[in-house]
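Researcher: Structure prediction, please.
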Amino acid sequence: MEPSSGKWWDKPVRVLQFNIEDRYGRYVSSITGRELVELAKDLHANVLVIFARDPWGRIFYRGGRVGPEHPKMNGDIVREAVEAGKELGVRVVVMVGHTANKHLYHLHSDWAQVNRNGEPILLEHVPFAVQRYEPEWPQLCINSPFYEHIKEEIREAHSLGVDGVFLDSFRYQPDIERACYCEWCHRRFREEHGYEMPREPAWTDSKWRSLWEWRYRVVVEKIKGLHEESKRIDPRKVFMYNSHPGGWAGRTNRVVEMARDYIDVVFAECSEADHQPPGFITEMTKLTRAMSGGKPVWSSRNYFHLYRTVSSTTPLAIRQGLREAILGGGSPWLLVFSISYRQDPDTLRAARKVFMEHEKLEEYLDGAEPLYYAGILVSHYTRDYYGREHPERYVDGFRGIYYALMHSHLPVEFVSERDAEDPGFLSRFRVLFVETMVCMKRSIARSLEEYVRRGGRLYISYLSGTRDEYCIRRYDYPFPEIVGGRLIGVLRRPWSYIVLKSKKHPLLRNVKRLLLWGDMSYEFIEHRATPNMGYHAILDYTIGEVLGWVGVPSTDWGHEYTLGRSPPAIGARTNIPAIITNTVGEGRTVYFSGQLGRHYWRTGLPEYHNLIKNTAYYLAGEPPVEIEAPETVQSQVMVQDDRLIIHLLNHTYNQRVMAMGIGRIKQPLPPYSSFEAVHPPRTIIPLGNITIKIKDPQDKYWKAYNPLTNKEYILEKTTPETKTLKNINVEEYTVIIIQPKQ
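Model: Predicted structure follows.
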């Protein structure tokens, strides 16, 4: 059934992406378009995504003008898929605009993206010397005539009768390692700015900042032009963009935020999922939905483990990964490569199971919105201009807040800077978390202040707002009353402490009285401690209640164990406030002088987790739906009119091994074992006795059931305003629908 908007992509979908991305096309001759559509149909996918042409420039259909036909293709893969798709009810979307095109590079080497040394920029992270004589995946520049070639790719794709086009690996990066300095870019930038492109990063120089911003505007301008070209041909065809939110330093998230009006659907490619925490695909889906302004997001789980594209991962990893996309409010997307499909197809049954579940759930997913409770403001300006070459110094912080709230079963969503300028948008959240958002537009500062004065609840930390969006210092907070004091400096210590006032305050429940602040450096080459993690903002003229003070150590480094990497003992408590609670207008705030979320992300220790959880409860109170379950259960509450949809995803795995990064600790002898060990989940431990409490003062909810199993639950009235579901069991995945009176 078509949605009322007439846009088929606004409804939940199930996507199979089939990539033929093999240099030698090992199995191309045996693949037909009909076979791929029939595979999608068998898996219960209703969208098939395939290449119109591959990164070598070879096209997968007959009679095209934009590149040579793949020499091993026997039939006409794209046309066959389109024809079979119309017959079997599977939409066919083709990938175009891939900035890697080896064939065109050989014909027009001057179209290539080149770095400041004049070397071709490759799509993958391959040292130039390795492919010096024949770059394998050279990227072409969207400021060159290659852009007109992409338009022709789109026109040709439309002529095949496809259901849409998809900009895949559409890369044009601002980072100096991957920034283009070709003549086309030089000429355009010089004409628009009157000076040459800076060749060295200089973040305090307006010329470098102008170049950085210009590169973003170029990508958005090109996406807009391609969107207009596609819609001019046929507005009923979907136009998609691959954001890859957890890769490429996160830069493309800003592209999505800026270009959201020119994108119908965002593809959140989650190829890092195997070496990220359980829940990563949900996290990336939510982040992408926030940046896209609520546009549909289709999120992927790779069929393979890590980058082992010729074989599959475990069935459990596939099932849970696809379900994570659903919990994030997105549509599940399975990415399969041709070699693994031919050599190891048996695990596809795992995806079929989830796609069948999704098919049953479609009624409950269409139009459902998250239950809004906690929002986390995400700042691309802070990541870019404060994080610079180390975006993790900012990103780790808001990721820590996110995972602490998720592990506490508190509803949490991300908020974009674009939406944060509207206090009306912010008002949907009962509490906002602003973690180390150092670079802040004045308009966002005003919006936050209005949000609090109207009754909003705000957590804010460290130096948030003390610089403008381009990281130019303000030397104070733009809203000192909200923070609870005036900035007079920064305590720069590799290690420090927080000394809590009293455990009687609800914010300090189950938290140690003495909290270590800082972390060791795992590189241990330039730094003993992780840069600025032990730092604190120094406030004066404080108002509100101080719940803790900064403690300084007795020495800069500890010497008990790791020769200067270990933390030192505390020396003395200062009068620098570390935690301040305050009431502003009708609202309430909590301020931390350091980076709380970053500590939880890096260490996972319960004291940091409890501080974040307690802060949410202290500021916002109990959420409308409370879930009592182990932290290994991932929960998501959605609202669809008067209906509640509660997803419970079990991540209680006993084989998950992640040893990434440990080997980076420099030792005088070789490490005991390799540090690249990443094991997928293989067996799950079923859980029981989960409890769900629902605030229901109007006695609205009367029925609870699982639409996947038809199991009904008893809604017990435990207080005059609360109904409770008890003894809920979760093996892998459970969905509970709470219905009002009919």
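Model: The chain has a mean pLDDT of 94.
Researcher: Thanks, that helps.
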